[in-house]
Amino acid sequence: MTDSPLHQTVWILDFGSQYTQLIARRIREAKVYCEIRPCTDAAPAHIPPNVVGIILSGGPASVLGDDAPAFDVDWLQSGRPLLGICYGMQLITHTFGGTVERGVSREYGRSKVVLDASPGRLFDGAESEFTAWMSHGDHVDAPPPGFRVVARSDSGVVAAIASQDERMFGLQFHPEVTHSEGGDKLIQRFLGVCGATGDWSPARFAEEQVSALKERIGSDHVICGLSGGVDSSVVAALLHEAIGDQLHCIFVDNGLLREGEAESVEAEFVEYDLHVVDAKDLFLDALADVTDPETKRRIIGEKFIRVFEEQARKFPNARFLAQGTLYPDVIESVSVRGPSATIKSHHNVGGLPDDMAFELVEPLRELFKDEARAAGLALGLSEDRVFRQPFPGPGLAVRCLGDLSRERLATLRRADAIFREELYAAGWGRKVWQSFVVLLPVKSVGVMGDERTYEEVAVIRAVHSTDGMTADFVHLPYELLGKMSSRIINEVKGINRVAYDISSKPPSTIEWE
Ligand code: XMP
Description:
Blueprint: E1 9-14, H1 20-29, E2 33-38, E3 51-56, E4 82-85, H2 87-95, E5 99-101, E6 108-115, E7 129-135, E8 139-142, E9 147-153, E10 158-163, E11 168-171, H3 183-193, H4 202-217, E12 221-225, H5 230-243, E13 247-253, H6 261-268, E14 273-278, H7 280-287, H8 293-312, E15 318-322, H9 327-331, E16 359-361, H10 369-378, H11 383-386, H12 406-425, E17 434-448, E18 451-464, E19 472-473, H13 478-491, E20 495-500
Parallel strand pairs: 1-2, 1-3, 3-4, 4-11, 12-13, 12-15, 13-14, 15-16, 18-20
Antiparallel strand pairs: 5-8, 6-7, 6-9, 9-10, 10-11, 17-18, 18-19
Helix pairs in contact: 4-5, 4-10, 5-10, 7-8, 12-13
The protein binds xanthosine-5'-monophosphate.
Xanthosine-5'-monophosphate binds near residues 297, 392, 394, 505 and 510.
């Protein structure tokens, strides 16, 4: 993991809490750089001077149990301000000689927190009573010597402890979770204790990354697979700013893109050395008569590698391959499994032959998605690009159910374009996580004038989500749905029926295939 020597940094030791990334988000929102490290890391003999504070996250284990992850207690002697959240609080208590009482299970819920009359620096300016997202598992029975209880839940459970010198704190609740009132301010006050001044932002990151990339790449060349999605676009923008025409972008038109997609990439990246590869026939010929979703995906994946490889060979002097790896990809598998766990390598273009050994450039590997977006805006990318909805790699192939003929794809593309036009015009485009049209593999009977028709059925899908793992269908107004439906049926030859998908994930999925 790269430490940023330029910025004050908070280290978060991850004990496996589902909320650890949220802690990092809250700190970065306060313009302080932070990094998540596995709790099993050994404490370095010399912690770099730019590390201004340490946070111990929550976690599923019990400090009293056999399942407690290995931990180097030297972390607690680092001299840096320390904040233990939930498991972290119990670890501080247990290590420094207090007592922790075993809970039945690690459940969470809203609780009232009541502050002591003089709760000290961490709660300076906080309401004397507030609601917080509290763990009902193990809790502190007696704080360690040199610590005092500064808050309790309304049922009397110790909710916060502080050391007498006001440099070490423990919380039974999760300030990083939005259900905890004033949690962001509490984290900001801890950053104040650390002396963090707020010297980091995605825009400054972009500036510094441009100089770092210039230095690393020198006069070498870089290849970048540009899909037009947020991550690859921001990567390309950073590299273009850093090395100009030493960057070669490859955009593969696989015939499965939405209306206007290739054109918009060409327009936005017109000043780049952009190679638009027309591979429509290659993909669509290979997909003719294929209806099984997984076979479609496999064929598309294989063809993509082949095309990309062929193009990449046109730049024999390219030493680097750029990828849009983000911070969650980097930390995904680190957590409690410790340093021995292999970090998932996020190969957007995995599967390239061994004789094409590129060095990877992953300039976004320190950023969360919204920070990558902010960096993209700072680099001058359009809002449309930066706030684009996720679009699956196999493109319209997984939205055109059944036969992938050119004709059916054209029908779907037109219907999808009309749907999106209406959605954005009505102001819903940016409010939803994903929205699209699906073409079903069945026909239905209709009537047009005096004629009976037997044509395709289109389904509209619009979902709210925060990460794609769960999703709710969007309650689009009936008037808007009606307008979309009549425009699609009137304007798209071959569709005589439109339905609206009102299923959530789970048990359904976002895409239909
Ligand atoms: P599901 O349909 O599983 O989708 O609820 C969750 C998220 O993943 C996207 N998705 C894909 N992305 N290749 C991709 O690059 C795929 O094969 C694929 N399938 C689904 C989907 O659009 C949603 O954002």
